[in-house]
Specification:
Blueprint lengths: L1 H6 L3 H11 L4 H27 L5
Helix pairs in contact: 2-3
């Protein structure tokens, strides 16, 4: 998922480029991007769980 993000014009590519410009190596910048993507997936899962457990009126 991270590799696809940095190969195309996405917000992930912008984030990766900012990390590289800040002096991080490729591996460090990829690690940061992977963490950021994992956080997005986790927040989406939590939001989905919260909305799916609501009782129907």
């Amino acid at each position: 998922m991270a590799m696809a993000q940095i190969k195309r014009a996405t917000p992930g590519q912008d984030y990766y480029q900012r990390k590289r410009a800040a002096g991080k190596t490729h591996k460090e910048a990829m690690r940061c991007l992977k963490r950021r993507l994992a956080d997005v997936v986790y927040r989406t899962m939590i939001k989905d769980t919260e909305t799916s457990l609501l009782p129907t009126p």
